Amino acid sequence: MPIDFYYTPGSPPCRSVLLTAKALGLELNLKTLDLHHGEHMKPEFIKLNPQHCVPTLVDGDLVLWESRAIIVYLAQAYGKDDSLLPKDPKKQALVNQRLQFDVSTLYPAFSDQYYPWIFAGVPKSDDKEKKIHDALGFLDIFLGSSTWAAGDSVTVADLALVASISTIEAVGVDLSKYANVSKWFEKCKTTLVGYQEFNQKGIDGFKIMVANLTKK
After folding, report:
1. What pLDDT, in 10s, does the model give residues 82-132?
2. What sign does the dihedral 104-42-22-63 (CA atoms) show?
3. Which positions are annotated as active-site residues?
4. Domains along the sequence of the chain with CATH
5. What is the per-residue DSSP string for 45-97?
6. CA distances in angstroms from 27 to 72, 87, 99, listed in the order given
7. How far apart are the first and last CA of the chain?
8. Omega of the bond prior to 55 within 30 degrees of 0, cis?
9. pLDDT reported for residue 215
10. From CA 120, how far away is CA 111, in angstroms rounded?
11. Which of 54, 122, 170, 182 has the fewest CB atoms within 10 Å around its CB?
12. Residue-level pLDDT at 100
């Protein structure tokens, strides 16, 4: 039975799932939703996901949303080994901490500042910009003690964080003063399977959308 994946290519959370599926060698049945035209508000999708958000994954009788939950599920259900999500409790705890950092600190700092500006023309705030840089500073510290986000090999934490970081860079936030983040990010671009196909293409489309929506 195919695994259906409802998504929009420019979304960082959606891109993290695509990267995870690619790393696992997993084929998803891709179903693009045009949020600007309200496809996520259609009754059939709301019946599937009452929160009508993307990404949403359907695997048999399991309907799952929230990208970090999805990538953990995919790694557990379809991983040929535990490299993307270690079974060792301490190693897995570190992966989960990085995922929680992404969902509760890094990505919200970006979205609180830039989505109102992109979609509603709300002026950007110095205080909100500082929160982004505070989060980048924390990530820089994390990456100072390991090769990858949660240890010495790629995990789902890297696949989530790189989707956020690449989006932050795409809106013009300067990453250069965060040496560890910059080094890790460049390594992600050349090392992660499917980066160009599933992340960079989404970023390119996101940049075009931002340019169109914010031009005066």
Report:
1. 999 999 999 999 999 999 999 999 999 999 999 999 999 999 999 999 999
2. positive
3. 11
4. 3-78 (3.40.30.10), 89-214 (1.20.1050.10)
5. HHHH-TT--S-EEEETTEEEESHHHHHHHHHHHH-SSSSSS-SSHHHHHHHHH
6. 16, 24, 23
7. 48
8. yes
9. 85
10. 13
11. 122
12. 98
Q: Half-sphere exposure of 80 toward its Cβ, with a 13 Å CA cutoff?
A: 6
Residue 25 pLDDT grade (very low, low, confident, very high; cuts 50, 70, 90):
very high
Instruction: Measure the CA–CA gap between 66 and 71, rounded to whole angstroms.
Output: 9
In which order are the strands placed within the sheet that holds 4-7? 29-32, 4-7, 56-59, 62-65
Give me 160's structure tokens: 């989530």
* Average pLDDT score over the chain: 96
What sections of the chain are H helices per DSSP? 12-24, 43-48, 67-78, 89-101, 107-120, 126-143, 156-170, 179-191, 201-214
Q: Rounded to an integer, what is the distance from CA 162 to the centroid of its chain?
A: 7
Of 198, 206, 194, which Cα lies nearest the Cα of 30?
A: 198
Other Cβ atoms less than 10 A from the Cβ of 112: the count is: 13
